[in-house]
Design a protein that fits this description.
It contains one helix and no strands. It is mostly helical.
């Protein structure tokens, strides 16, 4: 019986360690996702600004 309790405690400890590790990975990924979303928004804004400057000049061959 005591061996079984020890085994369960070891498993619980390992699961807790893995959960903490996964939580840290998830936090890092969320930070990266937030950074990438901000970057995409900035790029979209720059693209919109470049298109709203005025009509594009025709290339010289037209």
């Amino acid at each position: 019986m005591e061996e079984r309790i020890i085994e369960l405690e070891l498993r619980s400890s390992e699961q807790q360690r893995l959960q903490e590790e996964l939580s840290a990975v998830l936090y890092t990924q969320q930070q990266e996702l937030d950074r990438l979303r901000a970057e995409v928004a900035a790029l979209r804004s720059r693209l919109d600004d470049s298109h709203s400057v005025g009509p594009a000049e025709k290339p010289p061959h037209f």
